[in-house]
Design brief:
The complex is a heterodimer of chains A (619) and B (584). Chain A has 619 residues and is an alpha/beta fold. In chain A, 40% of the residues lie in helices and 14% in strands. Chain A is globular and about 85 Å long. In chain B, helix 8 packs across helix 10 (328-343) and helix 8 (272-293) packs across helix 14 (426-440). In chain B, 52% of the residues are buried. The chains are: A alpha/beta (619), B alpha/beta (584).
Chain lengths: 619, 584
């Protein structure tokens, strides 16, 4: 148990110790080697890197150097990432074998390991993280501590203003003042729908009930999205603190965080954080003698996408099959075990402490008219800088994809970006300059969603894309209501038919009618938004659908059944590379003579197209 | 005066005032607007899953689910816009696309809620054909056949099993398109905790659930000149059979039923009510014995085979509380193959006994190994009220035009006490009429015990008989049965005598009775209409106490000697055995 005074002492002392983490000119003889222990870098051996560094430091009796695990730095494409502070040197794609060189050259000799320095989009070598164009347009609020602190140390969290917002709330603000502050900030739900957070808190506070609950939705299920995971892995205490502030504001003393079991690192870190907070007396009874009680439990999800839907999530926490409930009543009035319940997602909570400490006016000065603050996107697909980015609302898609993301690799063209995962829609080239916020995205047929942003180049077939997402929804539909249970299946069947070259024009009409009605008639958000990938690709790429059914061609060349791979005899030099690479021996031809593909044998895998040095083979 | 708040809303241009808390669906009914439903079953399944009942509410995004969503002051509802119609048609179309469409040969042809809606919405072809989920048919139990290729996942059966009966033998398994109603390990209903009450069948809007039919077996016996086929009909059948021929719910068609059974070719047509009188003689005697000699109390009735199966599967250690009496039709079957066979010199092996029952658990009951004497089965076949109606139709009989006839001698006479067996509280009331007279050693004027009548799940009464206080209880529905049993388990049961029926409301709404649509069940109290008709039969009866039935007196004089005699035990009593909940 620590008193408020003790916490403040820890803060003061630790902040000094950790100044080198954020200050290039920190007055210290220490060096911190920060190694990313997010899921991505962990899977590329960052734990071995940490062990190797520690072993080397011990063997070489090096003093004043600490190896620290951190959360995600964001630039996952360059992982595993190692950053050395205070000088902020950024080493990319480090392997355990590189550790010795880093220790010898950087730490001992004080020189840079040039070959491991990160290259920017323009191929220029950057020495520090802040120089990277990937970071220049970002503004880190939710991700503030990710990559800065050791997520398994409550002291490090406290050092960087941790639990200071809670102190402010418990000692100097009324419940209504807290809600007012959140309302004024303009923060909206980051789970996807964008409901004003302050309003939600206020509804839950006003609801009558002897017991209220605070729930954190960490059932991040969109394929490609991992911002919530990264926050839990990199800065778990900020979610705990925010849930406590919410608990105080609405009058709840109990919280649940629903995390998918597929996030073992996040679950572990969050549990460590809960244990530490309990040990310090931050979670528990009569916190800091203020009379406020709060405790928190983790509930593991079994991996159903639908459990990200708030009422299905509640069902699952209560121990039942994860199926949505009909709304109204909303959870604010009848949630967990029928009691008033506040549900926000991880990223929403990650903004709370900053709003409390810096004020609503600071927060609402960032962003657009209707969407305040920042949004974290998981940038993926055909883009150079795959990773996590946090940008102010209103940043354009072009800035995210090209300035931050570094554009499309392999000299290909941007075709579209999918936001909102399987519930969202695609955004074509013509809307690249749309400032991203909740309203603008829905006005062009997509949605913010939880923040997955998948970039597609011109080799991607949009019908096939819709098919992919529908396949996902069919697998993830809970089966409760008819439109989603059977309707999405029928949509997938029609899309498959079209991709297989067996579609007709009436299939496109059927698809559209079905999509519109499923949107309207489904019970929950999953079914209501499941047709979005189809509706938006139909809106922007109808010609591509038509090409599949009328011309029996897949313009992007991705649908195998419609592809016919041919060798242009004018361009073929008869080198034989295609023949050697064909897995089914479909290519024949004599050396130095034009080769031929037997369409009966060809499986349209495309490897000859890729391998041909003369670009003589096309789909 | 109702002190509840009234609200006014507009539905399809009509203003309607309703109590706060009324659903849009109910409010619409008040102004004669019939919003279609499919998964909705009043107070049992109000889930909004099927999406048939969607409506538009002015100023709201998306549809409202009228079966659940409450009407609000000033709401403007439109139930029949092109948008809504298109969505409903899509729902039907999608449902049909994953449905076995052999409607002409389906047991529910003509009484199918899905079929009715397709007619209503003029569905002419199935727009979105595609893959279908395929399920094996479970016909391994003696009572129920489950054909999930006809299941539309409305989950009315699940809610009935879970919420009404509190058994939970079935639930949804799998997800998305692969969802299905399943049992533990997807085993046959015969191997899980299902009691064969058959309430799920009554809830099913389509032909996914039905009784295991014995119609063909019975026809075969009727056509065999060597076999002497005797039929008996349970008290609840006569007040429901007419419904299958378009007659009002609860019409007593005893006379026409007897005529029809004769026309079908049964050699003798008897009344199970007579068997019920016999049961009362034995059961009242057993109760008095237990009461006077310190036997296990409370004694619990045993004429509901669904209840017996429930007790054997859940309360094996408390089976001593069950009366050892067989159920009325089993007793009667045993008497037909002994006393009757001997008296009329018919080879008992050539007699085939058929029971028409409002129940599907009776099919299981008659197949129980205990239900035979010296290798001769008490009852050979049980058919449900629905099956009898089908046989009558197959035989080209214009049921509604038939003249009335009476059950046949010498066993056709029954008391009003036997008649009321068909409804919850009836067995208790009948038993009390006899037990009280026996204990008081005189004929008591009080005949009706209204405290044990009515729809309440558990009814209690305290009687003063021969200076002794007797506490009785009547429970119907297995959820209530469980309450009674838990009380006994904790040694806290205050009762001496308890009646339990597996089906909520008793046999009048048993699993073998005519199936009423969700709409009908919302509009009228089917149980009450049928039960009222049964009480009317009792009221009109000349004899209203079982022990005053002259045939019963004769049977004891000529054959059984006295209740609880050696012969009684041989033919009329049985044993129970604890059973594993899951046989896997």
């Amino acid at each position: 148990m620590k008193s408020l005074e003790e916490i403040n002492q820890i803060r003061e002392q630790k902040r000094k110790e950790l100044d080198l983490r954020v200050n290039l000119k920190a007055n210290t003889r220490e060096k911190h080697i920060l190694v990313c222990r997010g899921t991505g870098c962990t899977s590329s051996k960052s734990p071995v890197i940490i062990d190797t560094f520690r072993k080397l430091i011990e063997e070489k009796h090096i003093e004043n150097v600490k190896v620290i695990q951190t959360g995600c730095f964001g630039l996952c494409a360059k992982g595993p990432i190692v950053i050395i502070r205070p000088e902020d040197t950024f080493y990319a794609m480090v392997t355990p074998d590189d550790c010795e060189e880093i220790i010898n050259t950087h730490i001992v000799e004080g020189k840079l390991v040039e070959r491991l320095l990160c290259k920017d989009i323009d191929e220029s070598v950057v020495h520090s993280l802040d120089e990277l164009s990937f970071y220049k347009k970002q503004k880190r609020i939710a991700l503030k501590n990710c990559g800065v602190i050791n997520p398994e140390s409550i002291d490090e969290y406290i050092a960087f203003d941790g639990y200071k917002a809670l102190e402010k709330v418990l000692t100097s603000m009324s419940q209504d003042e807290v809600i007012e502050e959140i309302s004024k900030s303009g923060l909206r739900g980051r789970g996807g729908a964008g409901f004003p957070t302050g309003k939600k808190w206020s509804f839950t506070k006003m609801a009558e009930g002897d017991q209220k609950y605070v729930v954190c939705n960490a059932d991040e299920g969109d394929p490609g999205a991992f911002m919530d995971r990264s926050i839990l892995e990199g800065d778990p205490h900020c979610v705990i603190e925010a849930m406590m502030i919410a608990g105080y504001a609405i009058g709840a003393d109990k919280g649940y965080i629903y995390v998918r079991a597929e996030y073992p690192i996040a679950v572990h870190r969050f549990q460590v954080a809960i244990d530490q907070a309990r040990e310090y007396g931050i979670l528990g009874k009569n916190i800091w003698n203020t009379g406020f009680n709060f405790d928190l439990e983790i509930r593991l999800g079994a991996g159903a996408f639908v459990c990200g839907e708030e009422t299905a999530l509640l069902e699952s926490i209560e121990g039942r099959r994860g199926q949505p409930r009909l709304k109204p009543p909303y959870p604010a009035n009848a949630g967990l075990w029928g009691k008033p319940t506040l549900i926000n997602n991880v990223e929403t909570y990650a903004n709370i402490t900053k709003i409390i400490l810096n004020g609503a006016d600071w927060y609402n000065s960032i962003g657009t008219e209707t969407s305040k603050g920042t949004k974290v996107f998981a940038l993926g697909g055909n883009v150079v800088n795959v990773g996590l980015v946090e940008v102010p609302m209103g940043t354009t898609l072009r800035e995210i994809v090209f300035d931050i993301g570094g554009g499309i690799p392999g000299g290909k063209e941007f075709k579209a970006a999918q936001t909102g995962g399987p519930s969202g829609g695609c955004i074509p080239k013509e809307h690249l300059d749309t400032p991203i916020d909740y309203e603008s995205l829905s006005s062009i047929g997509s949605m913010m969603g939880s923040g997955g942003l998948i970039v597609m180049d011109d080799t991607k077939c949009m019908v096939n894309l819709a098919k992919f997402y529908l396949g996902f929804t069919v697998d993830e539909s809970c089966g409760k209501c008819t439109p989603c249970r059977i309707g999405t299946k029928r949509m997938l069947e029609i899309l498959t038919k079209i991709c297989d070259g067996e579609g007709t024009e009436s299939d496109i009409e059927k698809l559209e009618t079905l999509a519109k009605n499923i949107s309207k008639a489904s019970v929950c958000g999953l079914g209501q938004t499941a047709p979005n990938p189809v509706l938006s690709t139909l809106k922007y790429f109808k010609d591509e659908y038509k090409a599949h059914v009328v011309d029996k061609k897949c313009p992007a060349g991705e649908c195998k059944a419609l592809a016919s791979i041919t060798i242009n005899p004018e361009l073929c030099k008869g080198c034989g590379i295609c023949k050697r690479n064909c897995p089914v021996d479909a290519i024949t031809g004599e050396v130095k003579q034009a080769h031929k593909i037997n369409p009966e044998i060809c499986i349209k895998c495309g490897s000859c197209v890729e391998k041909c040095p003369f670009k003589a083979i096309s789909k | 005066m109702s002190n509840k708040e009234e609200i006014t809303l507009t539905i399809d241009g009509k203003q309607v005032s309703v109590e706060k808390g009324t659903t849009i669906l109910e409010a619409a009914k008040k102004v004669n607007i019939d919003i279609p439903t499919l998964c909705f079953l009043k107070e049992i399944n109000e889930a909004g899953d099927c999406r048939m009942c969607v409506v538009e509410v002015e100023g709201r995004r998306g549809f409202a689910t009228s079966c659940i969503q409450k009407a609000e002051e000033g709401m403007v509802v439109k139930t029949n816009t092109p948008n809504v119609i298109e969505a409903r048609k899509m729902v039907l179309d999608l449902t049909l696309s994953n449905h076995e469409r052999d409607c002409l040969t389906c047991s529910r042809n003509g009484n199918c809620e899905l079929q009715d809606l397709c007619i209503k919405y003029h569905v002419q072809n199935v727009e979105y054909e595609g893959e279908r989920t395929e399920h094996e048919i479970d016909d391994a139990s003696p009572s129920i056949v489950r054909n999930f290729n006809k299941c539309i996942l409305c989950r009315r059966c699940i809610s009935t099993c879970k919420k009404v009966q509190e058994i939970g033998a079935i639930d949804c398994a799998g997800r998305g398109f692969e969802s299905s109603v399943s049992t533990t390990y997807n085993d046959s209903l015969k191997d899980v905790d299902c009691t064969f009450c058959g309430q799920c069948i009554l809830s099913c809007p389509t032909g996914a659930l039905q009784e295991k039919e014995s119609i063909e077996d019975v026809w075969k016996k009727l056509r065999d000149p060597e076999t002497y086929v005797i039929v008996q009909t349970a008290p609840a059948v006569r007040v429901a059979l007419g419904e299958e021929f378009g007659m009002p719910i609860g019409t007593n068609v005893k006379g026409k039923m007897v005529t029809a059974l004769k026309e079908l070719g049964f050699d003798k047509v008897f009344d199970t009510n007579t068997g019920a009188d016999l049961t009362i003689m034995e059961e009242a005697n057993e109760f008095i014995e237990r009461l006077q000699n310190g036997g296990t109390l409370p004694m619990i009735t045993s004429c509901s085979p669904g209840w017996v199966r429930f007790a054997e599967k859940n309360y094996g250690e408390l089976l001593g509380h069950l009366s050892s009496c067989k159920s009325p039709h089993q007793m009667f079957g045993a008497i037909l193959k002994s006393y009757f066979a001997e008296k009329y010199r018919i080879d008992r092996n050539k007699i085939c006994t058929v029971s028409v029952m409002p129940c599907i658990a009776k099919k299981y009951e008659c197949s129980r190994p205990e239900m035979e004497v010296d290798g001769v089965r008490d009852v050979d076949y049980v058919i449900t009220t629905r099956e009898l109606a089908k046989m009558i139709k197959q035989a080209n009989i214009e049921f509604t035009e038939l003249e009335d006839n009476d059950f046949e001698d010498p066993m056709g006479e029954a008391s009003g006490a036997g008649a009321i067996f068909g409804t919850t509280g009836g067995v208790m009331e009948a038993a009390i009429r006899t037990a009280v007279d026996t204990l008081e050693n005189k004929s008591i004027d009080k005949i009706e015990y209204k405290e044990v009548r009515g729809e309440k799940g558990i009814k209690e009464a305290t009687l003063n008989v021969a200076g002794k206080e007797i506490k009785i209880a009547v429970a119907s529905g297995l959820a209530n049965a469980r309450k009674i049993m838990e009380q006994i388990k904790e040694n806290k049961s205050p009762y001496h005598f308890v009646e339990i029926m597996a089906c909520p409301g008793g046999c009048v709404v048993g699993g073998g009775q005519p199936i009423k649509s969700s709409k009908t069940r919302s509009a009228v109290d089917v149980r009450k209409l049928r039960a009222d008709s049964i009480y009317a039969i009792d009221e009109k009866s000349k004899i209203r106490k079982s022990h005053e039935n002259p045939f019963i007196k004769k049977l004891y004089d000529e054959y059984l000697e006295k209740p609880g005699s050696h012969l009684s035990h041989k033919y009329l009593h049985t044993k129970y055995n604890a059973k594993a909940k899951y046989d896997i």
